[in-house]
Specification:
single chain, mainly alpha, 2 domains, two-stranded antiparallel ribbon, 4 helices, 2 strands, globular
Length: 102
């Protein structure tokens, strides 16, 4: 890669980890804490992993000229089970409690 092609990498700025932080990250997988593959379904998996990454002392930098786009798509069955009208009553109570703590 030519230096001129990589110049946007020099324009980063640091941000602090925040609760419920869920950015996409670029990192060397050999130095990150391992992702817990027991996570299944929807919700809190990436948030929990990034909390672990931050707890291990990693810093988060933003590359302002680099981004990822996620295309709009239908809600998954797992999303509906977690947040939808038919989610379990215990899940509804948990979500309500989480929202009041923010």
């Amino acid at each position: 890669m030519e230096r001129s092609e990589a110049s946007h990498i020099d324009k980063y700025y640091r941000i602090e980890y925040e609760e419920y932080f869920e950015p996409y990250i670029i990192a060397n997988k050999h130095v990150l804490p391992r992702y817990d593959e027991r996570f299944r379904g929807y919700g809190m998996n990436k948030i929990s992993h990034l909390l672990n990454v931050a707890a291990h002392g990693f810093k988060f930098n933003v590359l302002p000229d680099v981004f990822v786009c996620a295309l709009e798509h239908p809600k998954s069955r797992d999303w509906k089970n977690t947040y939808g009208d038919d989610c379990h009553v215990i899940q509804k109570v948990s979500l309500k409690k989480q929202n009041t703590l923010r």
